[in-house]
Amino acid sequence: MAKLNLTYDRFGNGVPYLKFGTGAKTLLFLLGGPGNTLPVGVATTGFTRGMRGFCDEYTVYLVSRKSGLPPHYTTKDMADDYAAIVRNDFSGQVDLIIGFSFGGLILQHFAADHGQLAKSMVIGGAAHKISAEAKRIDYRYALLVNQGKDREAMAERAAAVFPPGVRRKVLARVLWVFGPMLMGPVEGTFRHDVLIEAEAEMSHDAETSLGRIEDPLLVVCGRDDFAFSVADVKEMVGKIRDARLKVYDQGHSTVFLDKHFVHDVQAFAKRG
Q1: Concatenated DSSP letters for 22-73?
Q2: DSSP alpha helices (H): ranges in 131-243?
Q3: Among residues 11, 68, 151, 199, which one has the fewest Cβ atoms lying within 10 Å of its Cβ?
Q4: HEC states along 67-84?
Q5: What are phi and psi of 26, to 5 degrees?
Q6: What are the pLDDT digits (tens) for 99-116?
Q7: Quick one: how many helices (H) and strands (E) in the chain?
């Protein structure tokens, strides 16, 4: 399998991205969160492995959020940032946008306010409601990072992968040891921004936006997603005029790694 050429840079409004792939079409993948760092080194492997199936047809941009977020910045404000990128850096339209997890929250507003800027849109691993446990984990993680307690913060992420038990304890220990490396460079205003993003997640409200989405959407979710239940995803789909749902036998973090994901997204993007 050929090695991917990875390029790190920033868009005109300061939002960072990781670019790879050789296709003529453009795919923006809106990163999960909270936290606006991009994966580096070994941490990129899982993402690039899941997205390789797009690389011949698309140039893929893994997109984060800008730094120096002001207090009370919302997921709707972040959607406006992405709209500015499409208008200013991609001549007003991209072929495909995938919003995953936290990025999926933002895409709910983007689809309502700026849907004409993308030919196809996909929400992955997200609903309009977030489970109380996921909110607790994410806010605790952000608070620890804000306080400079990076090992404790990364160990907290184990609760997002496994239920209470031996496997969670083992993973928490591994994340404690290797967490700072997996987190990547923490620079500038990141410790401030991660808390602003966690607060945006806590206050996320897309109820009015969902009913204003006019363009077709593909929604994919995991049957065992602890953060966004299938019931809540189905409720969200029911509020959107034209949304198609695919449910995979996956957990939260592995939805886009499912063997059906690339095919389902490509088929949706090629819909007649």
Answers
A1: --SEEEEEE--SS--PPP-GGGGHHHHHHHGGGTTTEEEEEE---SSPPTT-
A2: 132-146, 150-156, 166-183, 190-202, 207-210, 230-239
A3: 68
A4: CCCCCCCCHHHHHHHHHH
A5: -115, 130
A6: 999 999 999 999 999 999
A7: 10, 8
